[in-house]
């Protein structure tokens, strides 16, 4: 079988394309609420943290900047590290308890964690709450696409798994929207922002309890009659053919001994799983290292460098989140029409181009930032001398400049120390050239004002239009169908863990790399990953469009079997 899958098994005609009943659609969309919770809980913290910094929970750390930075980092990353743990446990739970009970467990964690966050009276409770929610996110990120794939007809499998990705991006968008409206509450609005996630979790919990278990898991656990009843509930027609297909898939996976009919021995089965796991984990790592988190972390920096703060920044940040969600709709349409492989390769090409252009533009923009006042001035408190805003930030100081430059970026500002008092004084500092002028000022801590900000925003949108239809859904869709029933939960668990660990690595090293590399360097680094990823996908990723689970296993078996020698 070649890398494009053209020499693999042809789509099965044993069962014609099934159609989902109302119950089947209800199961898919109720299950996909787990994706919504995934998206909401990972997106909500960006807005909540702005108001959390002003709360009594973190005010106890005033005066201890290093400890405050550590606590804020723990609150933000608590969900990420919890998700890695949840994904690792999710594979075990999915195989032992079933897909349905695993989602119930995730909902329980969402509800407990969200309530703890809303009622927190200390930063320790906040961190614990974020970790609990993260474990729920990890379990959901692994079980939800697996469950949807197992209850979907083969002709709709990838498209319906992509619905989960649509719910993730919609959850992220709505987290910004909820943050914006709840910010009008002012006092303790962060409690409502973090606590509201309990509501969709309760809704999913009620819905999932009334819906059936995965028929594939039922067959794998020798509950064939229950599986037959579930298929009648989910599919409008061809239920017996669907049951035979599932039983054939499970039987093929259970045959672990060598025989004349081509059964797999245990060593070969392990090699098969490792080959599938390399592709599954590789796709998840490629997704995270291709720049999506760099882009999403950059959005608030772009907004702040354009002079948007507080509620304004929350409102403007909805634009990339909306672009990400709406572009996923194209992925749902394209993934079953054009296939996983073509969609991923085209996505990588667009993402690579946009990252290259972003790197070039950010490098050019770094030379067009406002200068630092060079005269004698007691307010220039940064220990290291800096000629302009970009150099100031590279020294890990803060540029105190105008909130709006009106295209005149030659107006000087100050380079101040990054301590809280100096930053608080920025808004009231007199103009260094004309002391009588006290226009609105802003602390630029991570990005500088530049005439190219609008172009950078446009390229971020271009990146998201390329990423959302391909690199976003394909890794989840492929992992949901790569593995045999015996290893499906375990394989998805490993892949989800690799996703969250690589996510954590990006989170951990993004800011240090921003300071270590020249302007645009982070984008060039991510672009190099996408170029290598494009070559790797072209060489190793088979096309699975239209294939049953059993046919996908046969495709990999043919790829791994030693080729006969030609004499």
Ordered list of secondary-structure elements with their pairings:
Layout: H1 22-43, H2 45-52, H3 56-59, H4 65-96, H5 99-118, H6 123-150, H7 157-182, H8 189-195, H9 198-209, H10 215-220, H11 224-234, H12 239-254, H13 266-305, H14 310-316, H15 318-338, H16 340-365, H17 389-394, E1 398-402, E2 414-416, H18 420-425, E3 441-444, H19 453-467, H20 474-482, H21 488-516, H22 521-540, H23 549-560
Antiparallel strand pairs: 1-2, 1-3
Helix pairs in contact: 1-6, 1-7, 1-9, 2-8, 4-5, 4-6, 4-21, 5-6, 5-8, 5-9, 6-7, 6-20, 6-21, 7-8, 7-15, 7-20, 11-12, 13-19, 13-20, 13-21, 13-22, 15-16, 15-19, 16-19, 16-22, 20-21
- What proportion of the residues is helical, as a percent range? 55-70%
Major sheet strand order = 2-1-3
| Count of DSSP-assigned helices | 23
Number of strands: 3
Name the average pLDDT: 84
Rounded to an integer, what's the Rg over CA atoms? 26 Å
Distance between the termini: 21 Å
Low-confidence stretches: 1-15, 256-264
User: Can you tell me the overall shape?
Assistant: elongated
Q: Provide the β-strand percentage band.
A: under 5%
Order of SSEs: HHHHHHHHHHHHHHHHHEEHEHHHHH
Multimer state: single chain
Helical/strand content category: mainly alpha
Instruction: Describe the sheet with the most strands.
Output: 3 strands, antiparallel
């Amino acid at each position: 079988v070649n890398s494009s899958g053209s020499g693999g098994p042809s789509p099965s005609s044993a069962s014609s394309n099934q159609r989902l009943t109302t119950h089947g659609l209800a199961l898919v969309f109720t299950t996909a609420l787990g994706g919504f919770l995934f998206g909401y809980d990972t997106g909500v913290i960006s807005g909540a943290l702005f108001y959390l910094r002003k709360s009594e929970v973190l005010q106890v750390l005033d005066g201890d900047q290093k400890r405050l930075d550590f606590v804020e980092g723990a609150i933000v990353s608590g969900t990420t590290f919890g998700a890695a743990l949840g994904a690792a446990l999710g594979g075990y739970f999915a195989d032992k308890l079933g897909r349905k009970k695993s989602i119930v467990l995730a909902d329980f964690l969402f509800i407990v964690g969200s309530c703890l966050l809303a009622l927190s009276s200390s930063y320790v409770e906040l961190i614990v709450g974020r970790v609990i929610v993260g474990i729920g996110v990890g379990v959901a990120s692994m079980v939800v696409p697996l469950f949807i794939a197992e209850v979907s007809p083969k002709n709709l499998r990838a498209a319906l798994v992509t619905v989960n990705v649509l719910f993730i991006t919609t959850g992220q968008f709505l987290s910004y929207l909820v943050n914006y409206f709840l910010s009008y509450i002012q006092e303790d609005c962060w409690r409502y922002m973090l606590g509201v996630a309990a509501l969709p979790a309760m809704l999913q919990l009620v819905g999932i309890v009334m819906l059936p278990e995965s028929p594939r898991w039922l067959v794998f656990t020798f509950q064939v009659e229950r599986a037959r009843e579930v298929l009648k509930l989910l599919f409008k027609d061809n239920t017996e053919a669907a049951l035979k297909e599932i039983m054939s898939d499970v039987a093929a996976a259970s045959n672990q001994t060598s025989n004349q009919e081509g059964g797999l021995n245990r060593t070969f089965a392990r090699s098969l799983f490792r080959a599938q796991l390399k592709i599954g984990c590789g796709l998840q790592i490629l997704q995270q290292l291709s720049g999506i988190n760099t882009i999403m972390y950059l959005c608030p920096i772009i907004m702040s460098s354009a002079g948007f703060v507080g509620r304004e920044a929350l409102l403007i940040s909805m634009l990339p989140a909306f672009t990400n969600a709406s572009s996923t709709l194209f992925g749902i349409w394209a993934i079953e029409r054009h296939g996983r492989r073509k969609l991923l390769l085209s996505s990588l090409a667009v993402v690579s181009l946009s990252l290259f252009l972003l790197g070039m533009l950010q490098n050019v923009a770094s030379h067009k930032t406002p200068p630092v006042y060079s005269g004698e001035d007691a307010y220039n408190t940064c220990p290291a001398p800096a000629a302009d805003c970009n150099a100031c930030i590279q020294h890990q100081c803060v540029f105190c400049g105008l909130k709006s430059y009106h295209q005149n970026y030659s107006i000087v500002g100050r380079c101040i120390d990054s301590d809280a008092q100096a930053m608080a004084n920025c808004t009231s500092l007199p103009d260094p050239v004309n002391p009588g002028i006290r226009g609105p000022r802003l602390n630029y801590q991570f990005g500088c004002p530049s005439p190219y900000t609008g172009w950078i925003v446009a390229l971020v949108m271009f990146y998201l239009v390329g990423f959302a239809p391909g690199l976003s859904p394909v890794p989840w869709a492929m992992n949901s169908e790569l593995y045999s029933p015996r290893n499906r939960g375990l394989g998805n668990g490993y892949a989800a863990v690799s996703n969250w660990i690589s996510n954590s690595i990006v989170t951990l090293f993004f800011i240090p790399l921003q300071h270590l590399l020249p302007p645009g360097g982070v984008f060039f680094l991510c672009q190099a990953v996408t170029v290598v990823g494009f070559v790797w996908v072209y060489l190793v990723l088979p096309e699975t469009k239209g294939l049953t689970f059993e046919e996908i296993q046969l495709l990999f078996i043919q790829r791994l079997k030693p080729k006969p020698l030609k004499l």
